[in-house]
């Protein structure tokens, strides 16, 4: 039996994730995209992973620069998630009018997020049309306070504390 990719996509809708925007910069260019594949790998050493599709501008800049930044979005930033997911095709510069800041690297972070990461790629593993990046976290800001943007079954949700 061959697994149908649409079948997998529907089943994965049951997996609830936080929403983040990964950005990269290189040689005067910057780009970013919404990702839900961002994950912690290890605290010691401080490692994270993310999977990016090879045919994206963001992948290209991560590949060239060897680093990236991640903004974990707050509950009220669904519009930024949609913007960086490319859901507004008339927007050519996703950063236009979006307040940003930086930590240690040139990749911009989106203001208003609940956590920020600067990461340096230490290993990349190509698989089909994607590449899994393992990266060392070199700078962070945020302590888990605030309401995160959560995605489940193609809809943004809010968490309610117990």
Can you walk through the features of this model?
By secondary structure, the chain is mainly beta. It has a single domain, classed as Electron Transport, Fmn-binding Protein, Chain A (Pnp Oxidase, Chain A, Roll). It has helices at 5-12, 57-65, 78-84, and strands spanning 17-18, 20-26, 29-35, 39-42, 47-53, 67-72, 100-101, 109-110, 115-127, 130-141, 150-152, 155-157. A seven-stranded antiparallel β-sheet has the order 3-2-6-9-10-5-4, sandwiched between helices. It has a three-stranded antiparallel β-sheet with strand order 1-11-12, with no helix packed on it. The chain has a two-stranded antiparallel ribbon with strand order 7-8. A hairpin with a 2-residue loop joins β11 (150-152) and β12 (155-157). The model has no long low-confidence stretch (mean pLDDT 95).
Amount of helix:
10-25%
Counting DSSP E segments of at least 2 residues, the number of strands comes to 12
Outline the biggest β-sheet: 7 strands, antiparallel
CATH third-tier fold name: Pnp Oxidase, Chain A
Q: What order do the helices and strands follow?
A: HEEEEEHEHEEEEEE
CA-CA gap between termini? 42 Å
CATH class: Mainly Beta
Helices and strands: which structural class? mainly beta
CATH architecture: Roll
Order of the strands making up the biggest sheet:
3-2-6-9-10-5-4
Rounded mean pLDDT is 95
Percentage of residues in strands: 35-45%
Report Rg. 16 Å
SS field, number of helical segments: 3
Per CATH, the superfamily is Electron Transport, Fmn-binding Protein, Chain A
In one word, what is the shape?
globular
């Amino acid at each position: 039996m061959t697994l149908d990719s649409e079948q997998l996509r529907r089943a994965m809708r049951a997996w609830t994730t936080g929403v983040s925007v990964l950005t990269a910069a290189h040689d005067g260019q910057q780009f970013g995209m919404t990702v839900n594949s961002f994950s912690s790998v290890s605290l010691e050493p401080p490692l994270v992973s993310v999977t990016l599709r090879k045919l994206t501008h963001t992948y290209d800049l991560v590949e060239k620069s060897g680093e990236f930044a991640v903004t974990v979005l707050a509950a009220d930033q669904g519009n930024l998630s949609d913007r960086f997911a490319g859901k507004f095709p008339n927007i050519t510069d996703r950063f236009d009018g979006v307040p940003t800041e930086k930590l240690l690297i040139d990749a911009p972070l989106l203001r208003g997020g609940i956590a920020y990461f600067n990461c340096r790629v230490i290993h990349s593993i190509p698989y089909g049309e994607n590449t899994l990046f393992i990266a060392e976290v070199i700078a962070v800001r945020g302590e888990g306070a605030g309401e995160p943007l959560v995605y489940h079954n193609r809809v943004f949700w809010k968490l309610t504390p117990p």
